[in-house]
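step 3/5: co-fold with pyridoxal-5'-phosphate
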Amino acid sequence: MNATKIPFVDLRAQYAALQPELECAVRGVMERADFILGEEVERFEEEFARYCEVKYAVGVGSGIDALVLALRAYGIGPGDEVITAANTFIATVLAISAVGARPVLVDADPRTYNLDPHAVAAALTSRTRALLPVHLYGQPAEMDAILELAQRHNLVVIEDAAQAHGARYHGRRTGGLGHAAGFSFYPGKNLGAYGDGGAVTTNDAAIAEKIRYLRNYGQRVKYQHVVRGTNSRLDTLQAAILRVKLRRLEEWNAARRRHAEAYAQRLAGLPIQLPQTQPGVEHVFHLFVVQIERRDQVQQRLAERGIATGIHYPVPVHLQEAYRDLGYAKGSFPVTEAAAERLLSLPMYAELTSEQIAAVAEALAEAVSPA
Ligand SMILES: *Cc1c(COP(=O)(O)O)cnc(C)c1O
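step 4/5: write tokens
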């Protein structure tokens, strides 16, 4: 009946708005035949560091690599424990496993879905070396409590900022809240490339330098290998694209916040739990996540009306087959498990129109009302 289709994200609308600039940027790289690292990557790193209000940004191959290289740069490995969120995308946890450390998961705060600092405190052992808070859905984690714990126990804090480019916590940008941070430029992220990409941000010059070596075969200069590195360089074409898009990020994040407000107004009064932004926090709404009863039915009814939604995430990390050996089971993290059955992510992207928001809200009101 309803012909208007509303996608979950609309990368084509974004491309249409930026096409001439993007094509010019990509053509420049091809004309200069400057394909590996080079000027575009350096410029992007400077611009992204400035945007994040940190001293250094190092472009790497993906978001997971950003976390892996940050952990490696701090010497975290076998025998070490790293505490992170049970409620996250699996890449956060895989990064810890990749360096040979043991992931220790903790449950979420039911208001923010971010990791609960009390649970972090309870999970500390003599082997804990690092905390890896995730700024989930675009809302910074409770960093004051996390940093306080880290200081008291002499731990490294690495932010997973893959969903929170530009978000602020008591005035300060994500990426500069801990010792280092990992960002992803996966296409659907708030700042997305046209392929894979990532960056590590830090204020520590020695760590930034180490990550520059690690991402490029451990080379200080060509064929002089000072550490056993890998190949995880931010692609130069992607850097050129990201430079164009970075100029729009503030505007896009502001649009996401306006859309979140419009959703909240239109959905008020319905039996739907809306996202709660904590005081002192500037959320960037990578995702607009609500909680509802009979989630799967509601999602189905929205789909029938052409409205695409997502679930972030349907199976928590500790219940994944890949992590059976961590020793967790159903019931280990009740907040995360309950959320997995009730969460629904509504369409969210800067180009969303007020008509589309109204249509989603109307369909949702119908879908949650008793038949
Ligand atoms: C996207 C994402 C990652 C991984 O980023 P990739 O670029 O896909 O490797 C890590 N953590 C979180 C929370 C993410 O959302």
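step 5/5: annotate
Residues 62-64, 88-89, 91-92, 134, 160, 162-163, 184, 186, 196, 198 surround pyridoxal-5'-phosphate (CB under 6 Å).
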